[in-house]
Amino acid sequence: MSRPALAEIRLDALRHNYRVAKASHGGRALAVIKANAYGHGAVQCACALAAEADGFAVAAIEEALHLRQAGITAPILLLEGFFEAAELPEIAAQNLWIVIHQPWQLDALLAAKLSRPLHVWLKLDSGMHRAGFAPDDYLLAWARLKSHANVAEVVLMSHFARADEPGSAHLRQQIDCFRELTAGIHAPVSLSNSAAILGWPAAHGDWARPGIMLYGADPFAGALPQAAALRPVMRLESAVISVRSIARGQPVGYGGVFVAPRDTRVAVVACGYADGYPRAAPSGTPVAVDGQPARLIGRVSMDMLTVDLTDLPQAGLGSRVELWGERVPVGTVASAAGTIAYELLCNVKRVRFDYSDATH
Ligand SMILES: *Cc1c(COP(=O)(O)O)cnc(C)c1O
């Protein structure tokens, strides 16, 4: 016997979503699988995409080495480059690609003795003001890289602050900033994360960087029809482990924050915030019990949460409960909890992971 909490991962849906990303954007696409593939398992996701992905992107060398050890030979881009110059020999040995986003990295790269020239993605701060070279410094950085023996190809990149806001004037300004500054440079371009791939054709270039859309979450929360082609990759589910009936007026769970407005059948489900289900999800957050819509009631606890079964008399002990997946979009749970799908997916832990792949 074991605890029924489970994350089912559909690798065929992941591949489908990668194809959607590539078809929407054109050109080539790095599958972004940082943070353990947004909580889905980086090695499993990379292996499922290995035959068709043009490359992968991760946050740091540790994540990339994990993939190389698992036999992934495709290009892997380090999205923040190196954190200290001492990483450079291993980056060269493992044939990793690097983002250069600040002056000390540029100096360190050009000063290093390397076994081979590196692929560099030179990042412009076009208005997000988080990482990247300021526009005034960008062309000089490019000129220094362009003809240096330590550098193979240079890709020009930038990242958007507000790509998930349809019609954002700020995003338009970022595109204009990038295009004006780089108009005279002949080099491949990469601007688009998932939201820009789906919603901003003007931001398309030679390389896309899809992340969240690979996992089937809609960056626009339903505002754009293009995202309807995506399929959820993760289904977080568990089961009802006990049922009781309480009278109208009785409280449920910690703090008594939910008080039954009618006589209520309360189901206890084996999933809580220690599994990654958000404690901030309020009463009323949707779940699906044996495929039927139902609602969370009371406060989410560490190992359990409670659901109202009053309107589902046929459901009971052992009923399967989808916390998110095909029937309950992860983005819906996220917005009920005041966060985004990215955070929920990254936080899934302790549950059993079960991988399936319809076409392999
Ligand atoms: C994480 C990341 C992405 C992927 O973003 P999504 O919104 O998940 O598609 C793309 N580019 C950079 C630089 C990133 O850090």
Description:
With 360 residues, this protein is of the alpha/beta class. It has two domains: 206 residues, Alanine racemase (TIM Barrel, Alpha-Beta Barrel); 123 residues, Beta Barrel (Lyase, Ornithine Decarboxylase, Chain A, domain 1). Helix content is 27%, strand content 24%. It contains eleven helices and 18 strands. The strands form three sheets. The chain has an eight-stranded parallel β-sheet with strand order 8-7-6-5-4-3-2-9. α1 packs across α3. The model has no long low-confidence stretch (mean pLDDT 97). Bound molecules: pyridoxal-5'-phosphate (PLP). Pyridoxal-5'-phosphate binds next to α9.
Q: How far do the termini sit from each other?
A: 29 Å
Number of domains: 2
Oligomeric form of this entry? single chain
Number of helices: 11
As a percent range, the share of strand residues is: 15-25%
CATH topology of the largest domain: TIM Barrel
Shape: elongated
Based on DSSP secondary structure assignment, what is the total number of beta strands? 18
Ligand roster:
pyridoxal-5'-phosphate
CATH architecture of the largest domain: Alpha-Beta Barrel
> What's the level 1 CATH class of the largest domain?
Alpha Beta
